[in-house]
């Protein structure tokens, strides 16, 4: 009887030690199942943003993590972190790096950083697992000429339940466009209209159109996101005065 109890105790102790080791090596989150990689579906950065990052989460300690850009894993590797050492062309030029938790960090975001990024993980079982993030780069400030047309973008993926375009001027907030299951509505000036992908088009721009425009998206499950753009309209008279 004592031998059986001793054997069960040793097995239980071994299980506890194993679980402690596994849990101690969860670099991202214990919500990610084994042999799976989690990255955000989309990420939106601003042009010139000093720092921005994409997380890559998985269970356990990897042999290597590789960040690539393109539509398929066959694309070349931008940089990698293998046994603690970071290397790659985008690491060498200082534009990208990988943190200790394997997140991809952008230094001084550029327009060319827009695209699809793949996080590929090689683990202790030798499996190569991956996931991807679609990155969009937006201008925090858009400058256009009076009389012309501007198309302000709203960044998200999937089908929304509701999209609101709000114009913010000081304490005043005006909803100029609204999308719901009932369809597309134009609530503001008639020069405003919808573009593809829920963008806001403003035709025949006027200086009075200047302001902060925010696209607010509500999705199934209660998730919400927003994209903000500052619109500046250059008038002819102000341009002429700058020349003198």
From TrEMBL:
SMART domains, A to Z: IG, IGv
Keywords from the named record: Glycoprotein, Membrane, Signal, Transmembrane, Transmembrane helix
One Pfam family, short name: V-set
Segments forming domain Ig-like: 33-136, 147-232
Cellular component terms per the entry's GO annotation: plasma membrane
Listed SUPFAM superfamilies: Immunoglobulin
Subcellular location: Membrane
Membrane topology of the entry: Single-pass type I membrane protein
Superkingdom of the source species: Eukaryota
Signal peptide region: 1-28
Name this polypeptide is given: Ig-like domain-containing protein
